[in-house]
Amino acid sequence: MSWQVNSTRSLEVVGGEVKELDVVSLRSGRAGVAVGSHGTIVHENVDGKIFIVEFSDANGRTVALEDLAREELELISEFKP
User: Measured between alpha carbons, how far is 57 from 63 in angstroms, rounded to an integer?
Assistant: First the structure.
């Protein structure tokens, strides 16, 4: 696995997969969630293709829970226990 800096200056894992508790950025806007918003993956469906991502405000309150495909997400930070 290798790292590269993409044009938005965030880190993206090349050839890697996102998983629960990773921080991701939204590549396409949704109702109430702007493009580029950061969220945390809170659940990965069994097939690993759909993820539930929690988006929070500055006070830590949940503003949206979205079902998103891997293609809609950009990895910002990997969770490391």
Answer: 6
Distance CA 51, CA 69 (A): 6
In 29-79, beta strands by DSSP E = 38-44, 50-56, 62-69, 73-77
CB of 25 within 8 A of CB of 10?
Answer: yes
Summarize pLDDT for 8-56 with one digit per residue, the tens.
Answer: 444 444 435 899 999 999 999 888 899 999 999 999 998 888 999 999 9
Which of 21, 29, 25, 22 has its CA nearest to residue 38?
25
Domain 18-77 fold is SH3 type barrels. (2.30.30)
Q: What are phi and psi of 72, to 5 degrees?
A: -90, -5
Beta bridge partners of 12: 4
